Amino acid sequence: MISHANLVNAVDVPIVKLVPRNERQVSKKYLQRIEASLRAVGLIDPFVVFRQGDNYEILDGGLRYPMLLEMGVETVPCIVANQREAFTPNRMVNQLTASQEMRMLRKSLEELDESTIASALGISGISHRLNAGLLKRLDPLVAKAFEAGKLSLQSAKELALVKPERQTEILALMESCNDYSVTFAKGMVLKTPVAKRAKTNSQRTPWNRTEEKKTSLLNRLREAEQQQDFYSSLYRQYATNLMKLVMYVRSLVSNPRLREYLSTKYPEQLEIFEQIINSTEA
Mean of the pLDDT values across residues 49-78? Predict the structure, then answer.
């Protein structure tokens, strides 16, 4: 539902008094879907506007505005906001879940035919959104839980990978733990014995994916071991070279004539050499 905290009254505004804001950049397909909906079922959602003198600045509805102009619409239903906020009310609207969308489409089919609804949504058909194939693969209790919104679409798809009796077992576990998440569903499906797994034409079953993950993990471990060997070898070479350098510095400082020369000409370098020797001896 839209929050009405910043909205006041609803009015019909002459379209010539509407002033669009900066144009949003959206895909051509998205625009075609909006236009298809307008032509099929008309304007359903009112614009959200902010009054500026005799005109109204469009806060939400800018994409529909030029389409309505082209269609010759003279007045547009608007909700007038009392604050000029750069917001889109769609962000305040809870997105439909798959089960809610399915119920909405079924309700629409009581009054409209499938082609009209598909045209309004800007898609070729709605049968895939009714999830008829998925519902056939679900146990009636599981299907009921999905339609009631307890199970997400992804969770329902996971349960469809096992036989109906196993589905009800998993559903009972979900209810006892109050956990209907996809993660829980996937975990229970992975633990399903072979005899309770449903037949599927897909080669990428959860159990096959598990083997793939194991193989991928082993490959990553091998790569890590190779990198470890490389860096260990590099470190050993570095330590050897460092020890050789320290021995060379010690031989320089231990020579009385060189030490006297360094002390006279390069006292700072001599101090650094001594620090190197002292640190290695420590």
Answer: 91
C-beta of residue 58 within 8 angstroms of C-beta of residue 65: yes
pLDDT digits (tens, 9 = 90+) for 83-123: 776 454 444 444 456 666 666 666 666 766 777 666 656 66
By the 8 A CB rule, do 80 and 51 touch?
A: yes
Per-domain residue ranges for the chain?
7-92, 98-194, 229-281
Please list, residue by residue across 158-182, b when 16 or more beta carbons sit within 10 angstroms of its beta carbon and e when fewer do.
Answer: bbbbbbbebbbbbbeebeeeeebee
E-only strand ranges, the chain:
7-14, 18-19, 47-52, 55-60, 75-81
What is the Cα–Cα distance from 117 to 126, expressed in whole angstroms?
A: 8
Which amino acid is present at 120? A
149 contacts 100 by C-beta, under 8 angstroms: yes
- Gap between the Cα atoms of 257 and 245, Å rounded: 20
What CATH number labels 98-194?
1.10.10
Interatomic CA distance for residues 195 and 163, integer angstroms: 9
For residues 75 and 10, the answer to whether their CB atoms sit within 8 Å is: no
- Chain center to CA of 201: 28
* Dihedral in degrees, nearest 10, Cα atoms 125, 128, 133, 135: -120
Q: Is the pLDDT score of 261 beyond 50?
A: yes
- Against a cut of 0.70, is the pTM above it? no
| Tokens standing for residue 255 | 């020579």
Fold of 7-92: 3.90.1530
Q: Is the pLDDT of residue 266 over 80?
A: yes
